[in-house]
Amino acid sequence: xxxxxxxxxxxxxxxxxxxxxxxxxxxxxxxxxxxxxxxxxxxxxxxxxxxxxxxxxxxxxxxxxxxxxxxxxxxxxxxxxxxxxxxxxxxxxxxxxxxxxxxxxxxxxxxxxxxxxxxxxxxxxxxxxxxxxxxxxxxxxxxxxxxxxxxxxxxxxxxxxxxxxxxxxxxxxxxxxxxxxxxxxxxxxxxxxxxxxxxxxxxxxxxxxxxxxxxxxxxxxxxxxxxxxxxxxxxxxxxxxxxxxxxxxxxxxxxxxxxxxxxxxxxxxxxxxxxxxxxxxxxxxxxxxxxxxxxxxxxxxxxxxxxxxxxxxxxxxxxxxxxxxxxxxxxxxxxxxxxxxxxxxxxxxxxxxxxxxxxxxxxxxxxxxxxxxxxxxxxxxxxxxxxxxxxxxxxxxxxxxxxxxxxxxxxxxxxxxxxxxxxxxxxxxxxxxxxxxxxxxxxxxxxxxxxxxxxxxxxxxxxxxxxxxxxx
Length: 472
Hints:
0% strand
């Protein structure tokens, strides 16, 4: 925190004619005040950032373990998925609507709303979207989604949890303000993304480009401090790893490589725009009877969504289960090919998972869909290295969905150590995000404004006839 955010209390002892004991009392008060100020400026943010890093690492392990349990359950008995996936989807939606309203989706729209939305006198928005209830609900319910094989990621929830942990420290400051809360939210969100992907630079860029949409010196200091300490915690517990492993590729940046870059950008831009459209305008494309069913019977709709996800998962021999991290990593390293229809089938299960309303992120599923699109581009230009095309398409599809091109190529570059691909990845990210912007607004901002900028009381029964808004 900046020094002027934590004012020193006045020292009301007389300035002259002080006895030795009076000077001692004044010195004791001064040291006490300065110690408290140092704690608020340094100690508290550092401890909160370390906690964010610890939770990020633990959540990553728990989500992996939950998904592994699901795969063990259905190994050799795929029919079991038709009971597990719909049942756990219903349970996740019920818990979210009944007790953890505000924890749905990835959590990034909630952070954006808290940073930019107008606040009321009772601070209702912060109570709805943050606090210990949300932290616990986000963790517990999203793990049910992983246990059910849903197409969700852990990175968005980690951003939400990181912001919630960091903003809880505002209770220790003597003078709270909206400005202080926003600074803490940004720092926690950046630390959460950094801890989730082990990408500290991407955490800072994400907070500036996607969340804040500006750059402020004081925010910069707090944010970088949080990212550093969350990253150190992740480094100590998980090691210095690359999220998708080393990208070993040498690419000639000649005119011939322009063609796969352009094709990757166009395909990723269009498919990413289609995903955004499906979440933002579901009332337009969804049949009226399904629309009414979704609004009036959310738990039955969740069951139907889970049944669809199970059906696609079984039909694709398990390729669409989970976040898609394993599939993208295996394809990137050439250890396991994917079906040519993987991008489409994964897209379908991703849309179904988010429209159901369970807590979960979209970063990892988006990256895996990008890897699937890369198979199409590579089929057209077989002379290009497959790993290079995958890096391009992961960047392009993530940029199209988020419409944050700088964050997207920095994330992929850091995840794969793909510095040799910076220029092509930048080009794909910029073009695909522009193509997506022709059809839809930025997804996270649109969802934040639609769902959270104005207070909506939670349904009294938790599962009542309240028309849900698609959140991600």
